[in-house]
């Protein structure tokens, strides 16, 4: 059905309190007290109560009470399966990076800045900002949770959003204009490396005359992380064994702003303008020492054993969106959107190699920059059809243009003359049309039918990168909800959907990226190894298509708790994997080279079990805790399994998908002091993935503990102490080749300590 304009549900009382009591059998014995309760309610909730005078002075007034719904309430009312997280979850640990919030949510982990859902790689997970694809190069580390209104996590696609979401979708809803004046100041100090860093933010929002409302969140941020690294390599068919150790440091600073203006043109007509601006400057420095443990006379040893790397760059993104909503009467509604954005990045990467005597042997500099521009236009029309149907149709068009240059110079000579340093551009045009029907079948059943057709056309120009690729996908969708008891709150949800993943520009471009440890041309040219291949794109890639089935039982407990058990299955065709082949003749080398190239395989399947429980301890375990115990608990267990048909087992899993993931945590509020405290832990095992018939990759186990203590000093001031990433073991991977060669890379992350102060004016 058509959703209400106000996000919070409004519960209206009957004409008189007596009628309310009669309609609620459990309160029938309080009939004589209803008038007094109604008068008391008017005094206590005056800020959220509106009264309408009646001609009869003896008749009590009509009372309308608005109650703010919890995240669990909103989740239960969604027509499709969706997890919602609002301010309580966003503010709990005082995080300054959105990625830290996400890693604690059920079924989600963040690796290398990439969001993974259901254990699948970042490319399988769709990230939206206010319902539109995130800007190219967008990182979750660059968005402060204070700028976010709520997070919406969907495991199955809907027709009104692009279906490029095989694993699921994260929709980041930016902060909306408040109903009352909001002025918040946040200042924090954090430490993880050499010196403390400062983060700060200010949010100002208000409602003015003429139906205008606005909010202006501004945040400045810094980061400074250090990892100890070590590794071991066996190469040249076991002829050479190397060990390495070193450290890398990542630091930088930035600012992001997301202003919003709402204009209420009429009772059912609104216009909103949303801005989204991010800019940052990053620095990455590393050093590495390589030691030759064993070799024979025929081995070709590395040119350098002492390496230094320095990377400098900037990233920026700007977007403005205009949205118009109008409800025509009670049964029709239109939504129009238009947006434009631009952004880009540049970098300079220096590599300095020295021998064991400190003599410089290699100087390599890679420079590059890219710029992105995009424009979007969309429209959606909804209308009641009969008593139980809401039919919606819509269309979208998006156009993105990307220009990029890159150049690598080694010891004063271009590494790939005629290819590197040559600019190229790509234009991506995405069009879509969809229709959906939300059907309230009866008190127990509701359904959501939809179909979406989407086309993506990519055209690229430039030396080594000319191609024209078009993909078309039609995605039918069916979501069902069943209430075993119409008067209860429990739900059984089922979804049968199709989703897909289109190849990105970098996968399509046929430009090579060579492994610089093994020169491709010149007097020192030599064949690289399977653990150090060159890479090239494939303009003939087709989209991966996935047919998915999701079934979940959601038990909503009376005091706001939740127990959810779900299963899912995805059948993927046209799976993209990197092939690894020794090419005898390549255009960029004078010797044979091992080359990794993405190709479409036949099919793969993945399935899993998802369990989630959260709520007050006294509700979950009534025999162990008193009802007044201010302790909340939560836990989630996710089990995953997958198989790739064209790759031999036993570990022919989808790339990066762990067998299981376990999260658990608790929050406690002290009775004697205004103090909250809590913790959250995440655990995942070591696992192996057979990537090709020749190569496998083992990922080391992961575990982490976050904790916080928050004290409310006054009505206006609060302070929060937190730590992220305690007890983390070494992280990394071990790539092994069937001939016995391998490459082990490990790093030891450092915990992040912080203290944050918040003042409300």
Automatic annotation (TrEMBL):
It is a multi-pass membrane protein. Keywords: Cell outer membrane, Membrane, Receptor, Signal, TonB box, Transmembrane, Transmembrane beta strand, Transport. Residues 1-40 form the signal peptide. Residues 77-169 form the TonB-dependent receptor plug domain. GO terms for biological process: siderophore transmembrane transport. Coiled coil: none annotated. InterPro entries: Beta-barrel_TonB, Beta-barrel_TonB_sf, Plug_dom, Plug_dom_sf, TonB-dep_rcpt-like. This is TonB-dependent receptor. It comes from Roseateles puraquae.
